[in-house]
């Protein structure tokens, strides 16, 4: 069980800096890594770049509060567990939190041991695969966003890493070209640009690693169960 | 006596004659008419044929004495008619003398005064009734006065009772409002304490970890940090206690410092709800009163604004507190304004906001005493006024205080 927690990445969103540091200090050696964001906006940014497995967030913060951030994050990834720390015990906030699909609500002052215990409980459900075994002896490390071929590193661009995350998230099933374009490029792009992108990636890796479903999209096959 | 003269008398009067013994010798038509007897029935009869049984014998004795002494007799006589009716006749009986001064006969001339007598009698009756009525009325007035006096007595007592009841009600109101404010204060303390308590909890957890790892340095660092947290928490509770201690003495105090004290109490809730507060109060404005009572009113008003922001779902929350001078009717006043953009008060409630127990909040949050007590405090403690008006997109509460002479130094 301990080793399962060790694979997880945690994002703490909390405007009280000292509190965030103390929380990080309290739980850091139970997890793979911990990142702190000081408000909802930063939390959203770090969610995208850091790709945490669990988010622990305060609810009342200046700029984009915890609930707003949760809403935006849930639009991007509806399955990510979000744990709320709140100074509020009022019903209205609690109900709103439930509507947004918040998994757990801790009222401050909370016991850090209970937080770890809760994460322990939900960790198995995450089916976190730190090391994803792919075709042609490729292995992708979800936590570090790195690709290996027979233990040697394959250098990937930021967009290519995003692409792997996206395909692995929908492992063994089709991801449409529209979905891919939306996730990888901020601006509107032609199919040609996506085709060029795939072509270069195939040159770096192998012809079959990323499979093409003609005229629809792409998928990646994950071999570990 | 000439014949015509006699005729004239006979026509207009009731005339009879008797002999010296009282036997009727003559009656005129008028006599017959009034007595109900015919001429023949009367002639030769004693005159007492028309006598009324009510009349005492002494009257007749007096009559006979008078006429036998050759003097005329005048009286209103009550007579009885043939059909037993009573008539009143104004009667003059004159003895008729011969040349030797001897009585030959008596002549009686009468006229009917029955109507007058009846009238008089009924008047007398009315008089009597009136008299009685009068007496009765007096009695009634006395009775009423007595009742009124008693009512007055009990009224006094009832007023006293009502005043007492009212005082008890006021006490209850004050007590309830104090409990409500205490509740709010506790909520504020809880807000201020949640953060340091959370930190303390984490610090302890980390200390446990450090001790397992035998990291002496880390333990010392966390221990020191815990102590600082506890000291701060303890000073918070002291500030709150001071704030809530009932001060009785009226003293000169700075308006600005009373406002700052209120903001200190609300600091955490304002932060959590993301409310901007702008204070435009110059230094050196002093008034006389109980400082923390003004602070309590400010706390109350700001809490109301806060609740309204949440209730009306306002995103950009602003509260502005201004102090300005104004001359009203030749006197200088200080106007302390607490202005928010929380949507204002619904017109249908605007008359009632200062009534006790009036609230628009859910009963778990509002007792309906906040504004009522605030108004009482402002009026009693500062001898000032508290008013409300809506403006564009919010409320302005204004406290109008008469400026002291040494207000601005």
Describe the 3D structure:
The complex is a heterodimer of chains A (225) and B (409). Chain A has a 5-stranded parallel β-sheet, with helices on both faces. In chain A, strands 6-7-8-9 form a 4-stranded antiparallel β-sheet, with helices on one face. A 3-stranded antiparallel β-sheet of chain A has the order 10-12-11. Helices cover 40% and strands 21% of the residues of chain A. In chain A, helix 3 runs parallel beside helix 4. With 225 residues, chain A is an alpha/beta fold. Chain A is globular and about 55 Å long. Chain A has 2 domains: 125 residues, Response regulator (Rossmann fold); 90 residues, Orthogonal Bundle (Arc Repressor Mutant, subunit A). A 5-stranded antiparallel β-sheet of chain B has the order 2-1-5-4-3, sandwiched between helices. Chain B has a 5-stranded mixed β-sheet with strand order 7-9-10-12-11. In chain B, strands 6-8 form a two-stranded antiparallel sheet. Chain B is α+β, with helices and mostly antiparallel strands and 409 residues long. The model of chain B has no long low-confidence stretch (mean pLDDT 87). Among the domains of chain B are: 110 residues, 2-Layer Sandwich (Beta-Lactamase); 157 residues, Heat Shock Protein 90 (2-Layer Sandwich).
Summarize the structure.
The complex is a heterodimer of chains A (225) and B (409). With 225 residues, chain A is of the alpha/beta class.
Give the low-pLDDT segments of chain B: none
Counting DSSP H or I runs of 4 or more residues, the number of helices of chain B is: 9
Given the helix and strand composition of chain B, which structural class is it?
A: alpha+beta
End-to-end distance of chain A: 18 Å
Task: Please specify the SSE layout and strand pairing.
The complex is a heterodimer of chains A (225) and B (409).
Chain A: H1 2-5, E1 9-13, H2 17-27, E2 33-37, H3 40-50, E3 54-58, H4 66-76, E4 82-86, H5 91-99, E5 104-107, H6 112-122, E6 131-133, E7 138-141, E8 146-149, E9 152-154, H7 158-169, E10 175-176, H8 177-184, H9 191-204, E11 210-213, E12 217-220
Parallel strand pairs in A: 1-2, 1-3, 3-4, 4-5
Antiparallel strand pairs in A: 6-7, 7-8, 8-9, 10-12, 11-12
Helix pairs in contact in A: 3-4
Chain B: H1 3-12, E1 14-19, E2 24-27, H2 29-35, H3 39-42, H4 57-68, E3 73-80, E4 86-97, E5 103-112, H5 114-212, H6 216-244, E6 251-254, H7 255-273, E7 275-280, E8 286-289, H8 291-311, E9 317-328, E10 331-340, H9 370-381, E11 385-391, E12 394-402
Parallel strand pairs in B: 7-9
Antiparallel strand pairs in B: 1-2, 1-5, 3-4, 4-5, 6-8, 9-10, 10-12, 11-12
Helix pairs in contact in B: 5-6, 5-7, 7-8, 8-9
């Amino acid at each position: 069980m301990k080793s399962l927690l060790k694979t997880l990445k945690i994002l703490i969103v909390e405007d009280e800096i000292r509190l965030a540091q103390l929380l990080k200090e309290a739980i850091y050696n139970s997890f793979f890594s911990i990142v702190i964001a000081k408000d909802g906006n930063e939390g959203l940014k770090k969610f995208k770049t850091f790709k945490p497995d669990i988010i622990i967030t305060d609810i009342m913060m200046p700029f984009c509060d915890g609930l707003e951030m949760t809403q935006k994050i849930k639009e991007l990834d509806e399955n990510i567990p979000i744990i709320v720390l709140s100074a509020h015990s009022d019903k209205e906030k609690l109900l709103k939190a439930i509507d947004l699909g918040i998994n757990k609500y801790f009222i401050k002052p909370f016991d850090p041991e209970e937080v770890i215990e809760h994460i322990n409980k939900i960790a198995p459900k995450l089916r976190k695969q730190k090391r994803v075994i792919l075709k042609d002896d490729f292995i992708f490390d979800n936590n570090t966003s790195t690709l290996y071929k027979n233990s040697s590193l394959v250098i990937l661009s930021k967009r290519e890493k995003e692409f792997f995350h996206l395909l692995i998230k929908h492992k063994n099933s089709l991801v449409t070209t529209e979905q891919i374009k939306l996730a990888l490029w901020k601006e509107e792009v032609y199919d040609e640009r996506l085709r060029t992108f795939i072509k270069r990636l195939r040159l770096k890796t192998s012809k079959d690693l990323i499979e093409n479903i003609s005229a629809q999209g792409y998928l990646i096959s994950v071999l570990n169960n | 006596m000439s014949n015509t003269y006699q005729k004239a008398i006979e026509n207009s009067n009731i005339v009879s004659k008797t002999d010296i013994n009282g036997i009727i010798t003559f009656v005129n038509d008028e006599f017959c008419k009034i007595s109900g007897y015919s001429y023949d029935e009367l002639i030769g009869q004693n005159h007492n044929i028309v006598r009324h049984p009510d009349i005492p014998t002494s009257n007749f004795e007096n009559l006979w004495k008078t006429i036998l002494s050759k003097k005329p007799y005048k009286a209103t006589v009550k007579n009885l008619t043939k059909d037993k009716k009573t008539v009143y006749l104004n009667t003059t009986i004159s003895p008729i003398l011969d040349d030797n001064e001897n009585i030959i006969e008596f002549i009686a001339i009468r006229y009917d005064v029955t109507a007058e007598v009846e009238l008089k009698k009924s008047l007398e009756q009315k008089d009597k009734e009136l008299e009685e009525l009068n007496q009765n009325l007096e009695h009634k007035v006395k009775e009423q006065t007595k009742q009124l006096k008693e009512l007055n007595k009990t009224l006094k007592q009832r007023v006293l009772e009502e005043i007492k009841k009212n005082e008890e009600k006021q006490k209850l109101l004050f007590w309830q409002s104090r409990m409500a404010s205490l509740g709010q204060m506790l909520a504020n303390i809880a807000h201020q304490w949640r953060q340091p308590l959370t930190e303390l909890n984490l610090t302890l957890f980390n200390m446990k970890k450090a001790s397992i790892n035998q990291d002496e340095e880390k333990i010392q660092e966390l221990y020191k940090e815990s102590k600082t947290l506890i000291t701060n928490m303890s000073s918070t509770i002291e500030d709150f206690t001071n704030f809530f201690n009932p001060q009785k003495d009226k003293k000169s105090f700075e308006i600005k410092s009373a406002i700052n004290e209120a903001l200190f109490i609300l600091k955490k809730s304002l932060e959590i709800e993301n409310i901007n507060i702008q204070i435009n109060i110059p230094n050196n404005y002093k008034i006389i009163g109980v400082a923390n009572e003004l602070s309590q009113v400010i706390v109350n008003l700001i809490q109301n604004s806060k609740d309204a922001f949440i209730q009306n779902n306002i995103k950009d929350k602003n509260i502005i507190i201004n102090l300005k001078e104004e001359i009203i009717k030749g006197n200088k006043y200080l106007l302390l304004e607490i202005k928010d953009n929380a949507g204002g008060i619904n017109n249908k409630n605007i008359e009632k906001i200062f009534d006790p127990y009036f609230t628009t909040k859910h009963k778990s949050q509002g007792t309906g005493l906040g504004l009522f007590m605030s108004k009482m405090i402002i009026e009693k403690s500062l001898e000032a006024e508290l008013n409300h008006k809506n403006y564009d997109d919010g409320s302005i509460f204004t406290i109008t205080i008469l400026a002291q002479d040494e207000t601005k130094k």
